[in-house]
Amino acid sequence: MFARLYERAERCTGPIIPFQIGDTHLAPPERARLGNLGFDDQADPLLYSYSKPEGDAALLAALVDKLVRKNKMSFVRTENVQITNGATHALSCATRTALDPGDEVLLLAPYWPLIRGICASLGARPVECTFSYRLFNEPDVDIEAMLEQRITRATAALYLTTPNNPDGKVLTRAHLEAVANVAKRHDLWVLSDEAYEEYVFDGREHVSIATLPGMAERTLTAFTFSKTYAQAGLRVGYVVGPTGAIDAARKMANHSVYSVARALQRSALRALEHGESFIDDARIRYQAARDRSIARIQAPCAKPEGCTYLFLDLTEWVAPEDESVFGVLEHIAGQGVLLAPGGSFGHEFSKWARLCYTAVGPDQLDEGIDRINAVLDELRRRT
């Protein structure tokens, strides 16, 4: 599908506007950029040697401090953290720790697309449960009852992401308490994807579900430097959980990548030590980009409370004979703009699309949305 969209977009003159990818146009914190790390082969002889499989000691120590101080995970020690090749690897290690072949895992939809394949690859059965989208429209919905409808004897875990990729919902403490009640009642693991932890808007608070009573021992939380510090290409993330589970995750990491490159961990450490002002500035810029996008786009979508996306309902523009949004996205790609198809985020959202409003700067953001609107206007006139 994406190959066809890329092919269509490449026929256009001028640069392609890449709204389909979850990334940022911002450069990483200056002191964390590889060119500013001051690597010295003679003074730093370990640079080309293997890192410890669990991660470099200095980065682990800094992460323990961050997790206790910022995330309020008072239980965390070094043995509760595993450094990984990004959050994708973190969640892969987490699922292989928590799930066995034949287990069911509840995916709170819409969800980050790769989690479905990660679960399926180990023989677990993904089960979708419409969640954050309902919270936008039904703020008083009974969360526990909603989840209970999808749980069976085979359910072993549930996956959630907050702030949500793709719709931007930020789960409140009350939301998470309801999820926690269900997890404890059914003895479930919680796979908590908190890749966008720093990017919550309008004064909201990010809460890690592992901090709630009775949840530290049943939660595996994935974090990443990719989103927090604009270091997606460096592939550094980490997974946090109870000691026994992290022992198992270490084995998963050891047998998949052995260790994360030491030089990249040094860059991540520098970001952690000197990147707070970057986060503060990026949050302001991202919220401004959200507001700019919401004000300009014609397609309906909920106002994101965090994260870096608009999740667009394009049902109105999908032809009656079509089962997915792909035809609309082809028209948009024909104007040099790429969006991510909604069906990747849950079967219920096959006529939706995700737009990343941080992938380009303000001028290209406006230009891309104007092109999308022009296509939607043309499709509306045709019908």
Count of strand segments: 12
* Poorly predicted ranges: none
Helix- and strand-based class?
alpha/beta
Report the mean per-residue pLDDT as an integer. 94
What does this protein structure show overall?
The chain has about 375 residues and is an alpha/beta fold. The chain folds into 2 domains: about 1-20 and about 275-380, Aspartate Aminotransferase, domain 1; about 35-275, Aspartate Aminotransferase, domain 2. Helices cover about 40% and strands about 15% of the residues. The protein is built from 13 helices and 12 strands. It has helices at about 1-10, 55-70, 85-100, 115-120, 130-135, 145-150, 175-185, 225-230, 245-255, 260-275, 275-295, 325-335, 360-380, and strands at about 15-20, 80-85, 105-110, 125-130, 155-160, 190-195, 220-225, 235-240, 310-315, 335-340, 340, 350-355. The strands form 3 sheets. The protein has a 7-stranded mixed beta sheet with strand order 2-8-7-6-5-3-4, with helices on both faces. Strand 5 (about 155-160), helix 7 and strand 6 form a beta-alpha-beta unit. It is globular, with a radius of gyration of 21 Å. The mean pLDDT is about 95.
